[in-house]
Amino acid sequence: MSVPPGMSRRAILGLTASALAATALTACGGDSGGSSAGSGQGTLTIGFDNEPVSLDPALSSAISSDRNLLNLFYEGLVRQEKDGTIVPALAESWKVDGSALTFTLRTGVTFHDGSPFDADAAAWNLKRVIDPATRSTKAGTLSTIASVTVLDPRTVRIQTKSPDPLLLTQLSYEPGMMVSRKAASAAGKDFGRGPVGTGPFVLERWIAKSQLVAKRNPGYWRKDAAGQALPRLDKVVVRFITEPKTLRAELSTGGVQLLRALPPEEYTQLKDNAQVRLEDLGVRRSYYLAVNSTRAPFDKLAPRRALAGAIDRDGVGQTAASGEYDLTATFATKADWFADPTLPVPAFDAAKAGAAFAAAGVGAGTPLKLVVRNRPPDPTIAQLIQANLRAAGLEVTIEALQLESYLDTLKKGDFDLGLGVIDVPRYDPSLTFDPYLSSTGPNNFSKIKDPELDKVLAAGRAAPDRKVRTEAYTDVQRRVLDQSHLVFLHQARSPVIHRSDLSGLAFDLDGQWRLHEARLGR
Amino acid sequence: MLTYVIRRCLHLIPVLLVVSLALFVLLRLLPGDPSTAILGPEATEAQRATLRGDLGLDQPLWQQYVDWIAGLVRGDLGQSWLTREPVGAAIADRLPVTVELGVTSLLLATVIGIPAGILAAVRARRRTDSAVTGIAMLLLSVPHFYLATLLVLLFAVTLRWLPASGFVAFTEDPAGNLRFLILPAVTVGSTIVAVAMRQTRASLLATLGEDYIRTAEAGGLARRRIVLVHAMRNALAPVTTVIALQVGALMSATVITETIFTLPGMGTLIVNAIFSRDMPIVQGAVLVVVAFVLAVNLLTDLIYAWLDPRITY
């Protein structure tokens, strides 16, 4: 078959070229690097990797990340500053008198739907969280409340069963956020999709797994230091993006101006970008090994102690956190008020650990099952630990699982070692330690039954004085380290990342942002 | 013809029933339930048990299946366990995005793939042919997630011509909509371009060897007319089949591509729902996708009849 070249070829090339030209033309139309909702002067676009299930603060399920968005719409009676002090918010002042806590409320505040914020609204909100019918995930945090009484339209009194030194702190966060009774009653179970509070922004629309748009609340009560109306931004667009590489690309091009979090291997590539700022607020991802104390070999103290010295924490941090990590003795970060710098990080010595295992009767080749979540960088960390323990003579099998199966396996106790991570600091050390160390804690994966530890945990919770609490939490940490209930690994740094023309960010103690004073442009 | 269409439509019912049962059973075999997503990792066992009761997960499996099918018959796909959004509404929001992405990719593939295939066929076994075939091989081999990352790096991060991710509806901003769709469509279309090109080349080469083409050449018809009119009409039928078969593969390609470019389509809907164990959404969305692919197959059979008058139903 012979095909003379010429016309057919030209025709085909012409067709292809016109198709490509059409594509290119469309590509060049419009402004470059824009985001889906447009980035006007006063529009902040955020890349957010962890979309909340519900924006009803009483039903919030994430430990803390939902609060980045809840803070747009809601406020509590009080607020905790970054240094831990409690300052007024919807309450102008308060008085603690034994087991009674009396709040004097701010006047002239209204919810986004126009209904007034007063003592009735405040009391209804607190009762709503406690009411078992609400099924609030936060009910436990307010469980010491015996009654809530409206004394007059500006005054509300909380009576606790016994003095609760943590109550004001809890009320500064989700458990104390005030929602509109009118809107919540009208929406019923769907309220979580249509938040109505007194906060600086009002929900415009929320398309699940895509984006949430909030516009400025023109009636917001708070003013800045110069007496100017807040908030400064006209609009906040939250885009739900889960891919770290996409998040980084969007931040580099200005498609988004603020990110919740990026893994170290991604954010280290942004360090030389002059248009991007990495702000280290002390937030860390603290990795740990849960050690199953209900089965051999780790039901005995000596093998647990040998384990603590068998792991090269620096090696793990260098590889899995691109060198962006701290080594600390426990979940306490270096900046936490209850951190004790004298607590030692167990020294790594493979030979010594091997000998210690042998002396404890854990023979060479003892099989161990290490359970890990199947998402980066956890499997990498598991492999490093596997290599460390092989050097100490143990044979580790790694089982990488999806979150649900992972949690099930840890709770059922079908493992020897479980790799986990928690974001620290939390807004109170009781929230950091109790779930993992208390014998009744929901995440006591190590199955710790240690009355001594329970006693010091309770002391830390109940003490009103920070000095006493510091001592109690030092005892907690000392006890955990002494008993090697958990093996604490590295703490990966998790800075807030934003474009350098974004300023005025404020933060909760645990690093969640508040945008009422945020502004774009220099 | 009409009876054929009706008969084929009726055949869809048992197929969908079997698919629904398989889907339901497979999803229930997944470990874990939505209580982690809804209540968080630190919820107590009592809280989880209450939630399971609320969602009807304490009912026997057959009861849950029957309830679901009964709902389907009434046109009610159920409600998301997580967001309480009606499944039908969630799909109605997402389907247009995926259909738009699919159609754009197919269009791109047809507009580039078929002419490239013709070019390769008329220049068979020469350098142009080798180049086009080589490019096709490369496109077939590059995984979508890799190509997508490269495209973002080049066109979004380095050249800044196109946005890295996101979406805006066509009705809101037609130009913006196209800008957001180009990179995903190129990614998804890459494989189909290659498939369309290879099939066109092979099919056209076979047709060009037929007796009637030689007769046309002997009769002095223009080469262009012979290739584009007489040969192409016959060569197109297998190309149509192959492109139509790609629609199923296309659905799986959109899952990865939509996730990387954060397009709010069926792919991201299904992936996110699986991760959070939001079974009503997964069941509804997958069933719709299956129905869609079956419908496309039916449509392909009908297009045959139009392309080739010898085929009757």
TrEMBL record, chain A:
A molecular function GO annotation: peptide transmembrane transporter activity
Main localisation: other
A Gene Ontology cellular-component term: cell envelope
PROSITE patterns, per the entry: TAT (PS51318)
Protein name: ABC transporter substrate-binding protein
Family of this protein: Belongs to the bacterial solute-binding protein 5 family.
Position of the signal peptide: 1-21
Limits of the Solute-binding protein family domain: 85-443
SUPFAM superfamilies: Periplasmic binding protein-like II (SSF53850)
Xref: CDD domains: PBP2_NikA_DppA_OppA_like
UniProtKB keywords: Signal, Transport
One annotated GO biological process: peptide transport
Subcellular location: Cell envelope
Top-level taxonomic group: Bacteria
Alphabetized InterPro entries for the sequence: Peptide/Ni-bd, SBP_5, SBP_5_dom, TAT_signal
Automatic annotation (TrEMBL), chain B:
One GO term of the biological process aspect: transmembrane transport
Chain ranges passing through the membrane: 12-30, 101-122, 134-158, 178-197, 235-261, 281-307
Domain of life per record: Bacteria
Entry keyword Transmembrane helix: yes
Pfam families in alphabetical order: BPD_transp_1, BPD_transp_1_N
Mode of membrane association: Multi-pass membrane protein
Gene3D superfamilies with a match to the protein in the record: MetI-like
Entry GO terms, CC: plasma membrane
CDD domains linked: TM_PBP2
Subcellular location: Cell membrane
Keywords, in A-Z order: Cell membrane, Membrane, Transmembrane, Transmembrane helix, Transport
Principal subcellular localization: membrane
ABC transmembrane type-1 domain: residues covered: 95-300
InterPro entries: BPD_transp_1_N, MetI-like, MetI-like_sf
Family per record: Belongs to the binding-protein-dependent transport system permease family.
Protein's name according to its UniProt entry: Peptide ABC transporter
Native source organism of the sequence: Actinoplanes nipponensis
